[in-house]
Amino acid sequence: MxxxxxxxxxxxxxxxxxxxxxxxxxxxxxxxxxxxxxxKYEIEQLEERDMTMEEIESMxxxxxxxxxxxxxxxxxxxxxxxxxxxxRDLFESSEGCGxxxxxxxxxxxxxxxxxxxx
Length: 118
Hints:
The protein has 2 domains: 2-31; 53-114, no CATH class. It contains 5 helices and 5 strands, in the order ββααββαααβ. It starts with a strand and ends with a strand. With 118 residues, the protein is an alpha+beta fold. Strands 3-4-5 form a 3-stranded antiparallel β-sheet. Strands 1-2 form a two-stranded antiparallel sheet. InterPro entries: Cyt_B5-like_heme/steroid_sf (IPR036400).
């Protein structure tokens, strides 16, 4: 195939396609915003022990622990500060979370102990 005075060959087309693919990848890297991993909060794990509601409230205030009560079990969500902050009213209620949170907390977060009744 001839374009003007220049004859187009298979090699010319292949080089042009490779150039377009490379240019496409460069543009995508420049324009697409990179998604950063959410910040993970490193905090020392609590040893397992049973606690009263007063002790739990004290640890929430003084040590900034994100302790959650699910079915009389205490889980430490301190490593997921954003999740805790977004659901603070639910997590800090004296009744604790509903049973739908039990499998999530048991699978993902460290078990701290049981709630002792006064």
